[in-house]
Structure formats: C-alpha cells, structure tokens
Design goal:
Bound molecules: zinc ion
Number of strands: 33
Radius of gyration: 30 Å
Structural class: alpha/beta
Mean pLDDT: 92
Largest sheet: 14 strands, mixed
Strand content: 15-25%
Low-confidence stretches: 1-17
Shape: globular
C-alpha cells in the first residue's frame, strides 16, 4: 500500500508542479476551450462534447471562447484557429479523420483533418421532398429515366440538429473523443446507460504528442443512422468514429433499370429469361450486359454523376437477385463449369472493365466500383488485371460468425485471388445479423471472429461496410447489438489492440459484479453460435449462463438494467430453445438424395433437361420414386403421386409425377409466378428446413407457375414474400398425369439471405458428414404435399404424415428427414 501511495505522489509531483498544470483542480475549471471564429463543424461539436464530458467527470464547466482570456488560464485548442497556429500546431498533412493530440507548457491541442462536405443541388432535405420539389430538376438534367441515388437520399447522411454531414472529415471531433477515452470515458452503447464516465476532482494537463490515423479509411455501419432523430443514437455513431464514403457503392445498375419509364422505353436493355422473354417487370429486373444501348447509358450516367455531383466513385454492379441474361450474345459468356459463385464472373466483370476503360478516357481521376457477389463472386479468368480505375468489394470478405480456420482460410484465399487482379486495396461488406433479421433470435456476439478477421485484412482493405439489423434509426435491440460494432470500431481505429484486454475491461466496467458470468455467457454464445439454432442442449446452456449472470447483479442497479435489455431480446430464443428440446416424433420417413457428383452417374448427370418430362437418363437411370400417402390415414390416395430427388451441382432437383383420371384433369389456379391464386387449384407444396434455416415453402402447379416464401419471417407485411428461391421449374401435362422438374439452387453463404435456399449439404448424421470430408452439417427436414384438385373435389397426400389431429401442413416437427449419401 505504501509503495502504491508513494508512486502516485511521485507521479503527481513530477508531472505537475503547480496549479498551472491542471485543466481542472478540486472541481474548479483552470482552462478554457478555444475554437476558431468560424470553427469547422467537427471542431464546433468537438468543443461542446469536450465541455460536456469534462463537466460530467469533474463538475467543472470550461468556457468555450474564440479568443484566449488575457493573463490567464490554460488553453485547450479544439480544431484549427489562429491561436492554435500561433502555438505552432495545425492539421497539415493529416489524412481523412486523422488527428493530433499535442501539449505545450500551458496548452493542449486537439485537432485534425476537418475537410467539410458540400452538397450539390438538387438534393432532397427529407424523404418526401424529392418527388415533390427536386425530381423535376434532376429529370431535366439527366434527360433520361434514371434514378438518382445521391440527390434523393443525401439527407440520410446529414444530422440537422447537430449540423454534421456523415461525409465530413472529422479529425478534431475524433481527437476530442480520443482524449476523453484517455480519461477513462467509454461509449459502449448509445445513451447514458451505455456509457462509462469516471469521476475525478482533478484533471492534469497531459504531456502528449500523438498523431493518430485510423487503420481503415472508411468505417461504415448501417445503424444507428447519423440522421437518427434520437440525438444519443447519432452521437454514438460519431463517438465510435464511424464515417461514410461519398459516391455510389452498392447495386449501381439499379438506377438505370428501375425507372418505369426506362422499362417501357427499352425492354431490350433487360435480361432474357428461360422463356425467351426479356424481364423488364420484376422488382430487381437485371440488365442484358451485351446491350450496347445499356452500356452507353451506363457510361453517360456515370459521367453525369461525376460531373454534376462530383462523386469520386460510381458503382456499376448489377442489381440484386442476379439473373444471367440468356440472349444469344450473353448465354455463351456463362461459365457453368465454375459453379454457382463463378458462372457469371467473366460476363459481369467484363462489362465492368469495358465501362471502366471508357470512363478512364474522360475521368481518369474517378473510380468504378463493383462487388464480388452472388454468381460473380470469383474473379474473372479472362481478365488478368482489372483496369486501374476499378475498385473491388467482397461481400462477407471476412468471416462473420465462424471461428474455425477453414472459414478464415477460405476468405483469405478469395481475397488473395482478387488482390492479384487489382492494385487497389479491397472493400468488404459484412452482413452481421442480416438486415432482414433472419435468424436473429440467437444472441449475436462475435468479438474474436471480428478480431481475427480485422487483423488478417488490415492493409488489404480500405473500407468496411457493416450491416446490422435495423431498428427505427438506432440499433435493433441495443442491449445485445452494441458489442459487435463497438469492438469493430475500436479495432478499425487501432487494430493492434488485444481484444481480450478490451473485452475484460468491458465486462468489468459494463457488467460490474456480473463480469465473469457475462464473459462466460457471451463467449459461449460466440463459440456455439451455429448450434444455438438447432441444438436444444446448447441453447439451454446459453440461457442458463445468462440466468447466472443476472443473479450476480442486484436488481435495480445499472448493471441489472443493462442485462434487462438483453432479456428483452431473448423471448424468441427461449421459445425456440423449448421447441428444440421437444423430440421429433418417432417413425417419420426418411429420403435419401442421390449424389449426382458420384462417378457412377458421370454419364447421366448432364442429361438433365428441364422440360418437366422426367424421361431423361438423369431420372431413369435410377428409377425408384417414392409415393405420397394420405396425410392422415397413410392410405394410398386415388390420384397417385411419386417423387424423386437428386443433389446435383449445388442444387436440389426434384422430379414429381402426379396422376389423374383422363376425364378429370387438374384445375389450374394460376398461370403466372407469384400469383396467390395458385392455391385455388391443384398444386404441390415443398417445405424445406435446412441446417441453417427453418424453413422455406415452395409451391408449384401443373402450369409450371411457382410461388415461394420464407416461413422463417413473419407473413404479415409481405416480408415472407421478399425471398426468392430462384428455382427453375418446368411442368408437363399429359393425358393422365402431369409432371414437374424443380431445380433449387443451394448456397452455403448467407451473404444474401433473400435469394436461394441457405444451407450446407445435408448428411444422414454428423458422423457421416465428418467422414465425407465435406463439412459437418446435419440432415435437412422436408415435406411434400400434393393437393389434388379436380371436379371430384380435393384430396391431399404427403411424404411425411401429419399427426392425427394436425390440421396444418406447417408442422416442421413432422417433416421427414432428407439427406445426401
Ligand atoms: Zn443479353
């Protein structure tokens, strides 16, 4: 004790001989905050934040002045000013958001690069104003039916009350936050409950000379919004040091294809579907990248955006839900042999390179942007080096939730392949709790996955774009959701920190007496995340750990309040855990999918022709179809149905044959896709629960019409319909039967949860999966129903029987097992 006391006395004495070296002493202010006559936005807000937090810490309120008081006190320069320059300090040579913290004998300077953003008209001040007042000016400027991604949504990057643009550089504000952190302030979660403020009577003038440059230039998080109406949300965004890149950095082609005027005027710009028609109707209708007109408009649009809005970078990435155009010029550019992540790589990136080369002639200082995503995730083979003005982004370019080496090595391999194609660092987007909130019932904590990914990518990537599930303008369930972006942001600024030190401090400061228990809970959730969705025992253990943590903090104190916010998130998880612990009924059927990649099928696997007929050797070489039975009685139905299933090229293929009396053909409810009238006629329902998602519903009928839903999200507000299986369907109607072929693409990546079935190849058991060397997934669960609808009324049969009393198909616990062997 004596020694500690002695050291602290020595420190106080050596650093600070008298009152002149204290900013605050015994709760009295001994310094003033000096800003310029016209401070930058970052410096103005920085001075206010500094004043507010020094007062919270000490009770002393330092004045904010534009000229130092004569004869006086210590000076704290926030941002550049003539007075700071007189002391010999400025932000010269600092990169975006970088800052200096420097002190002299009687001053402290907190300043950085504060370059300010200037918006250009036309831009809307709010959501409604665009169509009402601004769009006309844009249409005149463009002269074409183009959407405007800048002017229309710029207001989301501006906070009116704080007068801060997201696109501002904020060095001086970051300097203030860094200084306050050095005093012990922590902003773990938005709002007062989320912050840690130490109490002190004295604050000494530090001896310091630091220059800090963030390790990532662009540090974007989707929530909270900087424009949030909640001041605390917006401030948290600033306090964690997030920012945004000016420009267009997402599915850029949508701005040329979405306008109804464009759809009408130029159907030839749109991708041709399997039925030979160009799709200019779907919400995310894609372009035909061989269309010369579309190419010319893409270039013209980019030039206008460069010149008028002065954006430095423009995306020419295809629209979401990509469909490779099947016109004569595009079809041959598909590279089917490269699998689902590379089918369209040369096709899409060839287009990007063409546009980039054209733009380089007129705008050599600007960049062209595209994402490695979906069927063009792998680098092109025909392009050795991308043009020098192309920037590449990889969706989920570092693992989101996987702790195993394989996932990290795989991501590194993909980044390496892309880095060989470009001189520039990469950009990555990361779907943390996908914005659609799918699967979001599990607690989401990935500090170690984040740490590993960031340490592996520092220097390789310049921009991270983190998607968090969205609450109104803030974090969705902030009690759980704050930890990932907080850890990410600390490492964005300084990647060489020890994540366990950051975490230990967090547990101690944020959860107090429950620190050890919360650490156990959070780290268990991180490690066992995959199993928390399917393994009742693991889910139960996680909940037990949380209960133990709650019991460690007395009710009513601040730590208990923070844990109560986690509790608010958990009801869905608790009920799922209960469900998982209900054993599946005995005796449900199993179905084994034929693995077409096996050598014995090599001569037949390529014979698949999607015409609905089931007569090719793909099906007939092993012809053991499985019958459906009456849903309750298990009796043979009048209208017989048989199905076969194959695992083929990362897709699940079903062939289904449905018989009927020749004089009683099926009633057709819908001729077109996505028409709910499909349920009014004869149809088949496929319900599929994968190891990753519960569950998908796909309905097809004799006309080959399809409607598909994600039953994992609420049916209300149409959210379930946002998902598309991207299935290929073909039906054939004969004299006394109709048959259908359905090819369902499967993806192991949840980069895009709105398209395709997400799941890993299903195995009979964990042991079989491990033995195969193809992963460690489990079986899937499946049911198939036929609703026979003729003049004779309705008859329903199924693969897996419903329970005696069950009325609904939607009983996932009664699905049969399905797996590949
Ligand atoms: Zn085409």
């Amino acid at each position: 004790m004596k020694l500690v006391h002695l050291i602290s006395c020595l420190l106080a004495i050596s650093a600070l001989a008298d009152d002149a070296s204290f900013l605050v002493k015994d709760g009295r202010p001994l310094a003033e905050i000096i800003i310029a006559e016209k401070p930058t936005r970052a410096a103005g807000l920085g001075a206010e934040e500094l004043q507010a937090y020094l007062e919270k810490i000490t009770g002393a309120r330092l004045e904010i002045v534009t000229a130092p008081t004569e004869g006086g006190t210590l000076r704290i320069y926030v941002g550049g000013s003539v007075h700071a320059s007189e002391a010999g300090i400025d932000a010269e040579g600092l990169k975006r958001d970088a800052f200096r913290i420097v002190s002299g004998s009687n001053w402290l300077a907190l300043l950085g690069n504060d370059k300010e953003f200037e918006p250009r008209e036309p831009w809307a001040r709010n959501n409604g104003q665009w169509a009402r007042e601004k769009e006309a000016a844009w249409m005149k400027l463009a002269g074409k039916p183009w959407m405007n991604p800048v002017g229309r949504s710029l207001y989301r990057d501006y906070n009116k009350r704080l007068d801060i643009w997201n696109l501002d550089h904020r060095g001086s504000l970051n300097a203030v936050y860094s200084y306050l952190r050095s005093l012990g302030v922590r902003w773990y979660m938005p709002g007062e409950l989320g912050e840690i403020v130490p109490r002190a009577k004295d604050i000494a003038l530090p001896r310091v000379n630091r220059t800090v440059t963030p390790d990532w230039e662009i540090r974007s998080v989707s929530r909270p919004l900087i424009s949030s109406n909640d001041r605390e949300d917006a401030l948290w965004y600033l306090r964690i040091g997030a920012n945004e890149q000016y420009g267009i950095l997402h599915h850029g082609q949508r701005h040329l294809t979405e306008h109804p005027g464009q759809r009408k005027a130029h159907p030839e710009y749109y991708a041709m579907m399997a039925n030979g028609k160009r799709d200019n109707v779907s919400k995310t209708a894609n372009a035909c990248l061989s269309s010369e007109g579309f190419f010319q408009e893409t270039v013209a649009f980019a030039r206008l955006m460069f010149d008028h809005y002065e954006i430095p970078v423009i995306s020419v990435m295809p629209h979401d839900g990509f469909n490779h155009c099947l016109c004569d010029r595009c079809r041959g550019q598909a590279t089917v042999e490269r699998g689902p992540s590379g089918i369209s790589s040369d096709y899409v990136w060839g287009f990007v390179a063409r546009v980039a080369n054209e733009l380089a002639r007129t705008h050599p200082d600007r960049k062209v942007f595209c994402g490695a995503y979906s069927t063009y995730r792998l680098p092109p083979l025909k392009i050795d080096k991308l043009p020098g003005n192309v920037l590449v982004q990889i969706t989920n370019g570092r693992p989101i939730r996987e702790m195993d080496n394989a996932a990290h090595e795989e991501a590194a391999r993909l980044r390496g392949m892309w880095r060989a194609k470009t001189e520039h660092p990469l950009s990555v987007t990361l779907n943390y709790t996908p914005f659609t909130n799918r699967g979001a019932f599990r607690p989401q904590y990935w500090p170690h996955v984040i740490d590993r990914g960031l340490k592996a990518t520092v220097g390789e990537t310049w921009r991270e774009d983190v998607w968090l599930s969205s609450g109104k303008g803030g974090l969705h369930y902030p009690g759980v959701a704050h930890l990932n972006p907080w850890i990410i942001s600390r490492l964005w600024w300084e990647v060489d920190q020890d994540v366990d030190e950051l975490l230990d401090e967090y547990y101690r400061l944020f959860y107090g007496p429950a620190a050890a228990e919360m650490k156990a809970f959070i780290e268990f959730c991180e490690r066992e995340y995959a199993g928390l969705g399917s393994d009742g025992e693991l889910a139960g253990k996680a909940l037990q750990l949380f209960e133990r943590a709650k019991a460690s903090a007395p009710a009513g104190d601040v730590y208990a309040e923070r844990m109560a916010l986690i509790d608010e998130f958990l009801p869905a998880f608790r009920s799922r855990a209960k469900q998982m612990n209900v054993p599946r009924p005995e005796g449900l059927p199993e179905y084994r999918l034929i693995d077409m990649s096996k050598d014995k099928w090599r001569d037949v696997r390529d014979t698949l022709t999607l015409d609905g007929r089931l007569d090719e050797r793909f099906w007939t070489a092993y012809n053991h179809p499985r019958p459906l039975r009456h849903i309750h009685t298990q009796a043979a139905p009048k209208g017989r149905t048989r199905f076969m299933g194959r695992w083929h090229q990362d897709s699940l293929v079903f062939g289904i044959r449905c018989e009927f009396e020749p004089d009683d053909p099926p009633v057709i409810g819908a001729e077109k896709d996505n028409d709910p009238a499909i349920w009014q006629g004869e149809h088949l329902e496929l319900l599929i629960e994968t190891d990753r998602h519960s569950y998908y519903q796909i309905v097809v009928n004799p006309a080959g019409a399809i409607i598909d839903l994600d039953r994992g999200v609420a049916l209300k507000q149409g959210r379930a319909y946002e998902w598309s299986s991207q299935a290929k369907v073909a039906a054939h109607v004969d004299e006394d039967f109709w048959s259908v072929e359905i090819q369902l693409p499967i993806t192991g990546s949840d980069e895009d949860p709105l398209h395709r079935i997400v799941g890993s190849r299903p195995f009979e058991s964990k042991a079989a999966a491990l033995k195969s060397g193809k992963g460690s997934s489990l079986p899937w669960f499946f049911n198939l129903f036929r609703k026979r609808s003729g003049s004779d009324g309705v008859e329903t049969s199924s693969f897996s029987p419903l329970g005696e009393e069950a009325e609904s198909f939607h009983e996932p616990l009664r699905f049969g097992r399905i797996y590949v062997r």
